[in-house]
Design brief:
This protein is mainly α and 481 residues long. The protein has 22 helices and no strands.
Length: 481
């Protein structure tokens, strides 16, 4: 048994190392680790070959959670691909940006809102591919520095990833495992994410207010920009927008106990393919098979760890460290998942931590049970911004290709500060929600600390101003003499 655990754990760690170092394609690395893990379970532990079905699709007891997740992911890929071909998201982004009329702070606010809106529907990579080139185009039109806009949007992509249960793969995995409904997830995670987004936006404006300047003559250029230039097929645009709206309505009004969310998404995807009259072969060829194979490999490796009880050990450790205090366990899940996903791809981390959180949730009240999974969703998604690894490298590369370079150091400084700021806000929110007394004390302490820092900064600025004035007085006196 110990040998099997060591082999499967080595496969998991090896997969993480290969992803970080980019030495081998992640799908190939994942499948190789899956095959080794499966063979270890069959030949060393005596499982029969039918085990592969449980590892791939999930067990009947779990409700075939992996299968539901895969179907939902593939269905959303199909819908998003048709919408992307129609230019739906480019149209929405361009139209909203034009509303800014070239006003710098309003432009920042609209760009941030557009990024969160699009990333709530698309995956991070597609959102970045749409938003970053659009920002660079607008910056050239307005003759402004795009760096503040690029940096802020790159961070907000992951905030948008926690709005809906379909906004990211970690969300899909978590909600399917914990039987969390679409509306339930939005009310407990999505709405909180929108509030954190507002606080983050305020922070961005305070940080960059002196850099957000647009020449007056450039504002007229944006007024002449025609957003319809990105649309080649208006009929397809209307069909894709309608399909997305219908899908969200179905998610809201049809509970998964009647029809599961993956079947709803698959039905809408198939109808959209038929009415769009696009070539089905071309659409199907756009499905990200690399991601699907990567997920399949992760399911098998992490499933093997779960079967061998390795995840139970991690769960017991968290229970011990949490000292039996539910709110402490909740906060630990948030911060641990965030810092793990900052260095490791958040999909395998989420898949490993889901059963761990499941074990912890068995020892807490029903009101806290799902909150642990919500905490995991926040941490797994937002932790990606703590370091410029993973999808954020794409942001740096796109900016470099468009001759608007963003340094790794720039991203790290902003991402690390903002992400910890966001995690701190969620921590305060949980304290207020589950332990009002400690929560209020924390809020008062933070308010006092912020006021003290502001006061010290004010005094420092005053001293600098006095020194500068004295300097100029000396120069003036010297000239007079």
């Amino acid at each position: 048994m110990i040998i099997t655990v060591i082999i499967i754990l080595a496969c998991f760690i090896g997969l993480i190392i290969l992803i970080i170092t980019d030495k081998l394609n992640r799908a190939i690395a994942s499948l190789a680790g899956a095959v080794i893990s499966y063979l270890a379970l069959v030949f060393l532990e005596g499982y029969n070959y039918t085990l592969i079905v449980d590892l791939l699709f999930g067990t009947q007891v779990e409700g075939y959670v992996n299968l539901h997740s895969l179907v939902l992911i593939i269905s959303m890929m199909l819908i998003v691909e048709i919408s992307h071909q129609a230019g739906t998201f480019q149209f929405i982004a361009g139209y909203l940006i034009k509303l800014s009329k070239g006003k710098p702070i309003l432009l920042m606010i609209i760009l941030c809102c557009v990024t969160v809106l699009i990333s709530a529907i698309l995956n991070n990579i597609l959102t970045v591919i749409i938003i970053i080139p659009l920002i660079i185009t607008v910056s050239r039109m307005l003759n402004i520095n795009p760096s503040p806009y690029i940096l802020t949007q790159a961070i907000l992509v992951n905030v948008g990833g926690t709005i809906f249960m379909i906004s990211s793969i970690p969300n899909i995995l978590i909600t399917n495992y914990a039987n969390i409904e679409f509306v339930e997830f939005f009310l407990n995670v999505g709405l909180v994410s929108l509030v954190i987004f507002v606080f983050t936006l305020i922070l961005f404006i305070l940080l960059y207010k002196d850099e957000l300047k647009v020449p007056e003559e450039s504002s007229n250029v944006l007024k002449e920009y025609n957003v319809w230039n990105v649309i080649q097929n208006k009929r397809l645009l209307v069909q894709s927008l309608t399909s997305l709206i219908v899908l969200f309505i179905l998610f809201v009004f049809i509970p998964s106990s009647i029809i599961s969310s993956d079947i709803l998404a698959l039905s809408v995807a198939l109808i959209l393919i038929i009415i769009s009259k696009l070539d089905p072969k071309e659409i199907l060829s756009k499905v990200d098979l690399e991601l699907i194979f990567y997920l399949i490999g992760v399911f098998i490796i992490t499933g093997g760890l779960e079967i061998m009880g390795a995840t139970n050990i991690v769960g017991d450790m968290l229970l011990f460290l949490g000292a039996g205090i539910p709110i402490l366990q909740l906060i630990m899940v948030l911060w641990i998942s965030a810092y793990f996903s900052s260095a490791i791809d958040n999909i395998p981390i989420t898949k490993v931590l889901i059963p761990v959180v499941g074990d912890i949730s068995g020892s807490v009240s029903s009101s806290l049970r799902k909150s642990l999974f919500y905490s995991l969703a926040f941490g797994a998604n937002w932790g990606d911004n703590l370091t410029p690894l993973g999808d954020n490298i794409l942001v740096v590369n796109i900016a470099q290709q468009n001759k608007r370079p963003i340094s790794i150091k720039q991203f790290f400084k902003l991402g690390f500060v903002v992400t910890n700021y966001q995690l701190a806000l969620i921590t305060v929110y949980y304290l207020l929600l589950f332990n009002l007394g400690i929560g209020l004390i924390t809020v008062i302490f933070i308010a006092f600390l912020v006021a003290f820092m502001y006061f010290m900064n004010f005094i420092s600025q005053k001293r600098k101003k006095i020194k500068i004035n004295q300097f100029f007085i000396k120069i003036r006196n010297a000239i007079i003499r």
